[in-house]
Amino acid sequence: MSQNQGKKKKKKKKGTPDPSPSGYSRRTRYPAEHEVIGVVIRNLGARRMEVLCADQVKRTARIPGRFRRGYRITVNDVVLVEPWDDLSGDRGDITYRYRKNEIRPLSRRYKKELDDLEVEIPRVMDYQQ
Fold first, then answer.
1. How many domains does the chain have?
2. 24, part of any domain
3. pLDDT, tens digit, for every residue of 56-111?
4. Of the candidates 36, 61, 31, 14, which has an alpha carbon nearest to the alpha carbon of residue 117?
5. Residue at 41 is within a domain
6. Residue 106 burial (CB count, 10 A)
7. Residue 59 is part of a domain; what is its CATH number?
8. Which alpha helices (H) appear in the chain, and where do they start and end?
């Protein structure tokens, strides 16, 4: 018999905090020239949301099929909206949802826009060892 037979390996738990000092594990995606930052006001159903955008326009935005299963978007989430090129300009697609740890770096660059939308910027969590 081998020495390791009958011993179980320890598995790393999922969801453990990142020990990096900054706490950010991803790069923050900034809006392109055709995208607008917005906050979800309400859920309209059928993959549609009402979004208040940084240019002070309320848009009816839909979640495209490629994001339908991957994103769980709720009220007060900060999202990127790509406006449609229609005549009214009050519709668009949601292209990205910001996580809580991505809002702080976003607020450094787009402070005025997020203050107008009244977005609550989360504090940095200190990881204690």
1. 1
2. no
3. 899 999 998 887 777 789 999 999 999 998 877 899 999 999 998 888 888 888 88
4. 36
5. yes
6. 20
7. 2.40.50.140
8. 100-109, 111-117
